Amino acid sequence: MYWYLRFLKFSSSFSSSASIQQVKDTINYFVFSKSNKTDDQKRALMKNIYDATIKVTGPLPPRKVVVIIKEHDDVNVGVGDTLKLDM
Question: Under a CB-based contact definition with an 8 Å cutoff, are residues 29 and 57 in contact?
Answer without folding.
Answer: no
